[in-house]
User: Which sequence fits this backbone?
């Protein structure tokens, strides 16, 4: 029987497998048993559509019309978004757009100004 790795969050040795995930019973943290191939690395640089490195506080421009889910609003091409915040996950930019409000964007649809 192979030994499972300890929890990366609390270092508990009591992790167990549930399908493709490993679970820690002490802190309830879940992580991929196959490695971090699907997970987004928190330290990985986030780049815009043309490869420029993005940072917190940057101003970006939207390069494609984006429909706002759950609404009839559209974020138009050329919309400037100021003071972005980077976060992990699929939608890696937190921002506030005038006339629409707070939302998350994918970095592949913006260009650094």
Assistant:
């Amino acid at each position: 029987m192979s030994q499972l790795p300890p929890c990366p969050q609390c270092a508990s040795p009591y992790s167990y497998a549930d399908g493709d995930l490993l679970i820690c019973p002490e802190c309830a943290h879940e992580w991929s048993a196959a490695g971090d191939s699907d997970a987004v690395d928190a330290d990985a640089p986030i780049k815009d559509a043309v490869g420029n490195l993005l940072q917190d506080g940057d101003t970006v421009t939207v390069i494609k019309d984006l429909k706002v889910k759950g609404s009839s609003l559209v974020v138009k091409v050329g919309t400037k978004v100021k003071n972005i915040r980077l976060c992990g996950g699929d939608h890696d930019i937190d921002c506030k757009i005038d006339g629409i409000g707070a939302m998350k964007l994918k970095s592949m649809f913006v260009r650094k100004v």
Q: What stands out?
A: The mean pLDDT is 88.
